[in-house]
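User: Could you write out the 3D structure of this protein bound to (2R)-2,3-dihydroxypropanoic acid? I've included everything you need below.
Assistant: Certainly. Input first, then the structure.
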Amino acid sequence: MAKIFLTRAIPEQALQLLIDAFGENEVEVYPHDQIIPRDELEKAVHGREAVLCMLTDPWDAKMFDAAGASLKVLANCAVGYNNIQVDAASERNVTVTNTPDVLTEATADLAWTLIMGASRRSGEAERYLRAGKWGSWSPNFMLGNEIYGKTLGIYGMGRIGRATARRALGFNMKVIYHSRTQRSAEEEGSLNASYVSFDELLEQSDVLSIHSPLLPETTGLFGAEEFSKMKDTAVLVNTSRGPVVQEAALAQALKNGDIGFAGIDVFEKEPEIHPELLDCENALLLPHIGSATLETRTAMAYLAVENIIAVLNGKTPPTPVN
Ligand code: DGY
């Protein structure tokens, strides 16, 4: 049995790096282009030394037990690792790694795709055009929100939050943020950003972009009460993790006019989408493609592979989590 198992195919060059390091017989890739079912995953990981997994693979204590004492490293091909119970890994001396930094710019670009697309109703407008409904140019047709010079609120000023804020400089936006830690005065100055309370963030943002990890304290954080504090023209954007936003409450807020628009790339129970959200013309919905560029997905795979190579060679991996 190969000592390394990949739960899904990764870009060819990154796979080759792994094969070059350990030989073809030591690398096995799940052969189907789908999420490996849990029962199959439990069997497939047994006896491996390294597993390269996806954010869609659940790694709880039972899964680590299924892998057994041979497992040395679990390399998540994602920056977010809420799919992994890290303390269960640490208790079993398994190193967990993720892929930070390499996807920062691609994800910030996608946040901006959603900021612009949701504000200017591009999904709705395109659906309208393709349905053959467009009659003529009209002064009152498909009016959206202007972005230039408005206030961008960032929830979670980590790497991706900062990259999203940096792009706002080109739109002459005022940036406000709320985060676990306040950034240095120098960093705030370079981003033209000011730290505000969570309520001030809700009340003052024209666009509110979420960039926090999924933690117990962020699960379900954005619900009916929060939406009622936001401007009725506000645009909510989420490229972090779906469960940070209560989807049913978001659909209701979009329908009631508590907020104006939403741009959403991540969902509570992917790939399911709350049916009422699907009904909202004022929501621009994308299928979790924040990091989906050829360059970034290749870089993520390389980093995951480099983490495995380091641990199996007894070295410190480039991006450990525990
Ligand atoms: C991540 O890496 O956490 C992203 O959600 C993948 O696009």
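DSSP finds 13 helices and twelve strands in the chain.
User: Perfect, thank you.
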